[in-house]
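Request from the bench team (R.T.):
"We need a structural guess for the complex before ordering more fe (ii) ion. Sequence and SMILES attached. Just send the tokens back."

Command: build protein-fe (ii) ion structure.
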Amino acid sequence: MNETKNQTAITQTWNNSFLLNIEVIDKQHKRFFEIFDTILQLSRKAENEGELLNVINELQEYAHYHFQTEEALIEKSNAPNFELHVIQHEFFIQKIKGFRMANNYNNPVLVNQIVIFMRKWLLMHISDVDGEYVTAVQQFLLKDGAN
Ligand SMILES: [Fe+2]
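Reply to R.T.: structure attached below.
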């Protein structure tokens, strides 16, 4: 099989190694991956006819919603590195806003840039940064009885 074609066929879809065992967060992370998969599919099309803007908007809205959930839980449970985590979330939002602006200029490689950024961000953020709050949030939810 053609090596390049093979490479672009790799999809970074959800797998259970991303589970943090916090139900509400895992559900939202799965949704994040679904949006990522949609972008990945668009990156394989020659034309995306405005679909990219729709999915960028969806990603921005969903990121806001998800980050609010996470930040509230981190704060309430006194998990470590709250400020650092918020900075990472803000970085993501700013980056997505930049992609939305870039989309106005019909940049043909934009969709690939988004795929590269999101793949790295999802892998690194969920395993390293989100991983830091797991114990504190799990304990908080157990005590709170809300999970
Ligand atoms: Fe996070």
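Two things stood out. The longest helix spans residues 51-76. Residues 1-8 have pLDDT under 50 and may be disordered.
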